[in-house]
Each structure stands twice: as C-alpha cells, then as structure tokens.
UniProtKB/TrEMBL annotation, chain A:
Family as reported in the entry's similarity comment: Belongs to the binding-protein-dependent transport system permease family.
Residues that span the membrane, as ranges: 53-74, 117-141, 153-171, 183-205, 240-269, 289-312
SUPFAM superfamilies: MetI-like
Species in which this protein is naturally found: Paracoccus halophilus
Species lineage: Bacteria, Pseudomonadati, Pseudomonadota, Alphaproteobacteria, Rhodobacterales
Disordered, as annotated region: 1-35
Stated name of the protein: Peptide ABC transporter
Automatic annotation (TrEMBL), chain B:
GO biological process: one example: transmembrane transport
UniProt-annotated location(s): Cell membrane
Provenance organism: Paracoccus halophilus
Membrane topology of the entry: Multi-pass membrane protein
CDD domains xrefs: TM_PBP2 (cd06261)
Name of the molecule in the record: ABC transporter substrate-binding protein
Amino acid sequence: MTEPRGQQVEESVSNAAAPGAEALPPDDPVAAGAPSRSQWRDIWHQFRNHRGAMLALVIFLGIILFVGIGPWLWTIDATYVDYRARNQGFTLAHPLGTDQLGRDILARMMTGGRVSIAVGLVAMAIALTLGSAIGVLSGYFRRLDAPLMRLTELFLALPLLPLLLLMVTLFREPLSQRLGAGGGVFLLIVTAIGVTSWMQTARIVRGDVLGLKEREFILAAKSIGTPAPRMILRHVLPNVISPIMVAATLGIATAIITESSLSFLGLGFPPDFPTWGRLLYDAVDQMQMYPWRVILPGAFISLTVLSVNYIGDGLRDAMDPRIRGR
Amino acid sequence: MLTFALRRLLLAIPTLLFISLVIFLLLEASPGDPLGDVPLTVPPEVKARMREALGLGQAWYIRYVLWLKQFFWVEPLYWFDQAFGTDFSQGMQRVISFQSRQPVFDIIAERLPQTLTVVGMSYLAGILIAIPIGILSAYRQYSWFDQLGTFVSMVGFSLPTFFTGVVFIIVFGIRLQWFPSIYDTTHRVTDWDSFVFQVRQMAMPVAVLALYNAAQISRFMRASMLDNLRQDYVRTARAKGLSERVVVLKHVLRNSLIPVVTVIALGLPVVFGGALITEQVFKVNGIGQLLILAIHANDIPMVLTLTFIFAILIVGFTLIADLAYGILDPRIRYD
C-alpha cells in the first residue's frame, strides 16, 4: 500500500509539458503532447508490472511459436514411420528421440501441440460465446433471468467428466465416419468441452450486467431511445469485457486439461492423430524404459496450462480498477 | 431454516429427474449397440430375443420410467429387506448390468470402498495441508513463504493429475522403488505388515490427489483469511490485549473457515469425478474404472446408474454446502 502511488506521480511529472501547465489541464490533451490514457494502455501498464504474468506471457508465446512455426522449420513428418530408427535417444537427427515406430518425437510434439492448443482456443471460444450470451441476456432482460439461471444451475449439477466421456465415446464413430477421423473427433471434443464449461462465465457476466444496469450512462442511453441490441453491443458488452477475458484465459487452461484427460483415458483423438494427451497416453506403456516420452508431453501440457493460468492471474489484477496503478 | 431446507430438497427432485432424463436420452441417442459383441453367426431371431431379455424391446419412455422405478423403489426396498430380513422386494427386478448380469448396485458396493479410501484420504490430507498453509500465507502476506505458497499452489492445480501421477510412478515407483506402482485391491489388512503395505500402496494415489486438492483449498483459505484479517473486530481483539495466537487462531480462523467449509463441500463431488483419472493411472479398481469399462462395453444400466450417482453427489453436496453456510454463519438468514 505504500509503494503504489510512486509510479503515477512520476509519470505525471514527466508528462507535464511546461511548468505553468500544471495548474490547468490543457484544452486538448492530445495536441498538448500528453499520452492518450486509454483503458487498454493502462491495463497493459499494470500487466507489465506483474512479473510472473509477463514471464508466463513470454513462455506462452514461445509455445505458440514452437507449435505454429515449428513444423515449417523442422520438416520431418510427424506420422513418418522409420522402423530402423526406432526407440532412439536424443541424437542430432532426432533431438528428442524417436518412438517405438521410429516417428520423430520433436515433430510429434509440434503437431500434437497444434491440436491441443487449437482445441483449447476453439473450446474456449464456444464456451465464452455461450456463457456471455446467456449471462448478458439473463442480466439484461428480467424476464429471461429466472429460466436462464435455472438452466445454468442444471448444467452446474451435471457430472461433467462422466458426461464428456459418454458423449465422446458414443458419438466418436459416426462423426469420424462422416467428417474424417481427425475433423470429426476435433469437432466433437471441442463442442463437448464448450457446451459443458460456459456456466461460470455466464454467472460472472450476469452479475456484472446486473450491476451495470443501474448506472447512469445506461439510463442516458436508454432515454435517447437506444434499441436493446445496440444497447447490449455498444454499452453493456464493452463494460463486461474484463471478466470475460479473465474467464477466457482460465477457459483455455481447463479445455487443454480436459482434452488431454480424455486422450489419456484413451477416449480422445485416434492414435495417428497426435495430441499432447495422446502422446502421453501412448508412452505410459513404456514408461519404465523411456520415461522421457511421458515427461515431455506432460511437461508441455503443464507448462502451457501454468503459463495461461498466470496470464489469467495477471489480467485479473490488471483489470481490477481498485488495484490498478499500484 | 427448516422450511429453506425442505424447499431446497423439493427443488432437488425435479433437477435430478431432469438430469437422469438427459443422461438417459444421451445414451438412447447413441448409435452404440449393447449386442455389438455378439458373434455374427448368431441368427437374427435369437438376437431379437436376447434384446428382449435385456429389456430393450420397449419404447424409450417405458424403459426410462421402469429404470426410475427400479432405482428409487425396488433398490431401497431391497436394502430394507437386507437390513431387516423382510421380503418386500420379492420377485421385483433390480437394475441389472448388461455385462455381467449382476445387479448394478452389488458391483458398485464391491468397488466403492477402494474409491472411498483413496478419495477420502486424499481429500482429508489435502485439507490438512491446505489450511495451515493458507493461514500462514495470509498472515505473512507477500513474505517469501506466501510467494512460494502461491507458486506451488498455482503449479499444483495447473499440473493435470494424470501427469503428476505418472511422474510419481516413474520417480518413486520405478527409480527409487519406494512404493508399488499398481494398487492391489485384493489386499486385506490383517496384521501390522499388511497394514504397512496398504499404507505404502495408498501413498502415491493419495499424494497426487491431495496435492491437487490442497492447491485449490489453500488459495481459498488464504483469500478468506486476508478478508477477515482486515476486519475491525481483529483490531478490537488486539486492542483488548489478546495474544496474537488467540486473535489469529481463534477469532480470525473461525470466521475464515465458514466460506472454506462450503468450498470443501462443493469440491467433494468434483474430486470423485477427478478420481476417475487417478484410478486409471494407478489401476485402482474403483467406481471410476468401473464407469470407463461400462462406457466401453455399452452397458447402459451401469453407465446410467453410475452417472446418476455422481449427479446425486453434486446436488446433495451443493445442498449441504448451502445449509452448512446457514448453520455456521448466524448472519445468513434464509427466510
């Protein structure tokens, strides 16, 4: 509580254009050379002070680069079977070794990561869209509030992991026949995770919208006759963006963990379609001989989830106006 | 309070009915066939009769109501008979597993002790670790202990349990040979040596789950302690000369435990769900493993019953958490 203000004071002193200008703010701050203090700039400023979150952001971007650009630089195909070079250790030709079929583990790690992270992002996007839509609707329209909240409670009472297992096992075959092995399972897993993880977002957003509705600017916007859709898009949604973003980061983390748990139980993607969870599951049988094959994908999952969680933590701190500027 | 409890209990009934219907319809919509494993040489009319025998001949709503009757009426009657030696349930059909043709509840009763010991011990251990850490972290906020605690708990709930489990097996089971890596469920505790063996084989699964639970609960404990440490009554307690020990461990701790107790109650069904994975890692044949096997075998009654039991746990513990909050905190009034 003591060091907080230092930085702001410093900033305002260095920003003062002329000694006389301190008494009165300039008529046009942008022309006067003061930096525009947008909300996002403030948040970024605060976020940068969170050392753990910054480090996590760097690590997360590193992982994204690794799985995004990696396969172009490291051109061995992840499914290429080189049976003579199987079960190799760390060599120059295969920096992370090869598996029991002689497939290059570095390449499998990259492709697997692509799928895992893509599942995390898409499932999060589905959960977030559903959650914010339901949250905003039930917070904004009083008539929808009770039924939508009952629905949320019902979903919260569902045993999620067993249901996910059930959904994936039951519909895996028909969907992969219709949409191809990879695509069908991807769609299924992403939808299943998205549909079962929107409830927390909906609750948080609803609470925030309920609070917002009592504010004067909403009243003002209403009094000039703003129709409800524009009201929601222009005035309500931008003001609840911060809890949504925090929920988004946490959503990525849980989606990645859920997908890898499903793969770990042998109920996720097919074997020729590597994801981090699947790689770990495949390696468990040989963990006595080759412990690295288990540890590497596990470490990638954990590192990704840990960094995403830290980013979420930093975002929450940065977006909380009560502690911003400390 | 009583009216609140009754109202919540009544509300839980439609919720549970709805959930059971959802699970039932999901299973119904599935393309899987419980007779899929039957050889192709079996003629179709025999297959049709087998289907009949499994009770699959009727429309779905009849089977649903039948299952409800078996679950809520026949099974309790059967337990009553078992307990008091009466024979009300004579001639009534219990819920039967497709796989083994045994009553589902008998199989669950066989599996439940394993899950309960592992999950229960780990949750208890997690709580016992988490509460002191939470107290100390909050009391010395921003100290190195707090920083370390924050980091460890962040790592604790970021690491998926299947990864920590496997790493534990590699390090302690294979490299150091301290603990057996596979849980032997046929083991019976008869003397001191077998007790030691039981402790050793439980150590790893319990440690994995306890780490995960402790990470979450210690965060809540810390936040709740921090909230209370800033309250006026703490200053009053200090001002009237109470020792720091009494202030923190009696006044603040008691108040901070109220929300934590509800978090603990709410977390218990989630832990049961999470035990699914831990059981798979350590090959514990508890109800989690039973569920996965049943899903693979298209054993509809088993899957339906087990999933529904998970739902009952969730609804029940939510209710308990709400009621506990009201009992522990006299400021909460429900009516």
